[in-house]
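One chain given next:
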Amino acid sequence: MALAALVCALASTTAIGLLTHARQAGRRGRYLWLAVAAVAGGSGIWATHFLAMLAYAPGLPSAYGIGLTLLSYADAVAITGLGFGLATMGGRVRAAIGGAVVGGGIAAMHYTGMAAYEVPGHLIWNPAVVAVSVAIGAVLGAMALVAGLSAGTVRGRGLGAGLLILAICGHHFTGMGAVTIQPDPAVAIPESAIRTEWLAAAVALASSLILLLAGAAVLLDLRERQRAESERERLRSLANAAVEGLVVCRGGQIVSANEAFARLAGTEAASLVGASLSIYLPGLTATAGAAGEAVEAELVPAGGGTIPVEVILRPMAEYGRQPHHAVAVRDLRARRRAESQIHYLAHHDALTGLANRTSFHARLEREMRAADAQRTRLAVLCLDLDRFKEVNDLFGHAAGDAMLRDLALRVGGLLDPTQLMARLGGDEFAILTPLGHGPADGSAERLAERILAMLATVPAASGPVIATSIGLAVYPDDAQDQRGLLSHADAALYRAKAEGRGTCRRYDASMGAQIRDRRMLEHDLRHAVSRGELDLVYQPQTRIDTGAVTGFEALLRWRHPERGSVPPDQFIPIAEETGAILEIGAWVLREACRTAAGWPQPLAIAVNVSAVQLHNPHFVQFVHGTLFESGLKADRLEIEITETALIRDPARALLTLRQLKALGVRIAMDDFGTGYSSLSNLRSFPFDRIKIDRSFIKAVHSNPQGAAIVRSVLGLGRGLGLAVVAEGVETDEELSFLAAEHCTLAQGYLMGRPSPITHFAEYTHGDAPDPVAAVA
């Protein structure tokens, strides 16, 4: 039984392997391997049967008839071969039919072999069990070939072999259960019959030899195929590793092509073999690029259309002992797209898709020359979004970008093909529009009015309605060159913004002086620190209950050599817009800390910090260095910031304030109540003080609304454990009201006007008298 099981397993495994190999072979090779598979499978089935019969011991002498024994072998090989042939024709249905035929072959071999069985008695059969044995062989045989041939994997072949073993063994043992031997001494065994022991040994030896030969043949063939396939795969991999398409041609006919060229051609690489190269590269001659030069051509893929390519064609010295050419084909679509994108970006704004500054200037120059030739006029409209910076601060830069795109889309929809809109940078836009011959042509003014009306009535996609100011200048009436025309349109825009925003102004001569004055102010402000034109004045902060001075707030003043004293509300916004506030703010902090460090009295010093400074990544490091250089203790420095400085980037602002707190610096919220999300900011940020804005303190004793607000802030401060400083206290009545409401600190003209620190020497260098009495 063990030997029968071994032979059955070898036969089943070899047969499934040979079938897989036969299906993959060519037509002639397929028949050869089917024959070998039939011999191996049939021999295994036949040997398994007779080896198992050796284990069957009925207690009677037995033998086998020669003719039927040989016929059973022929049945096994022939019918199994027929089933294998059907199974390799393709498809799961044919595989199932072929497997069922193989099961029938097992049955035919089994019962023919049993007919050759000679014993002194009679064989009595149970037809029902016989039918079951045939069904088991057919069903399991069908499942075996479906699994072994359909999966195409080692696991699938193993499953198929296992099922074939079950088909053979299941049929045999079920079939043996269908027979009963009835002894009959009158029945004699013919002398010509083969003895059981000799037949079994011969069958085992012959079957094992056949199976070993079949296995050896498979191994040899597989090794040869693997070697050939490995070589082909190596060459294929080298070709497919190339980014460019590679084609080998003989006389204009494609001999081989890599995957890259097949993708370009829109077909499979195998289908290209034998095709004419001119189908895909029409017009390419055998001498084109023969010297190695790259030539540009059009590739025609199978799906139609054309692909721009670069082709290099070179002769091959030896390829199959016939002259061939190697053709390298490079796809130029990515390069063309990149060139197109570069050209687009060079002339358009990436955010809005409008013309950019360079493209606008080129178009303006052409239109000016055309206006000169035709004696016509043209207008330039400069516009920007009013309070656009606040949109970025409140809603973030993504909302600001959406606003710019929305503006470009809506205003662009009002223009005709003769007009051009461009984004010059930031929220600055320009529109070029040709005019008629007469100076009374008001089409530019009407266009500006349409733009203002449209933007005033249609909300922006990113949030609230934002007004637009427009400045207008006409060529050649207002300027004779491009630079002057844009400068005058910009001056008109500045005038429109200064006169209330949301309006349009045309350039006149008075505007030039105004814009030049502002630009000169910007220029002078950039050099104010290096020229020593900046000064600090100090205003005391006092306790309301005792009148004691607790510290000073440092306030910046600019003494211009020609303009005299320039108000802070005039130059501070300019400094923030131009970025000069970083240098100026650094000077203020250093000077205030140096001055305070020299006071014998350890009074506090408060310094205002702008949003630009607060969001500078090196600000905390600068504060730490300034304290170290000046020798001022960190707890004497108070940084004052407004709520607007927090909302530009709350996460960065919170990190900066926490780092300042870690140094020991105190933080005060300035102008409380005038910004956004005040209560949320008090909860989220590490403030030490609240400064009530002067607008709430003015006449607080007689203004019920102001008094209610001040009481609320004082209560909020007490609840949060924050000191409250009242700014702008100017009268005794205001001070008395604050005292009655238990306000802690006050600052204003009543306690002291902003002055050089030397005016407060009695506070900084000695015991100070009552500041309120001194003012009185």
Notes: Residues 768-776 have pLDDT under 50 and may be disordered. The CA atoms of residues 491 and 516 lie 9 Å apart.
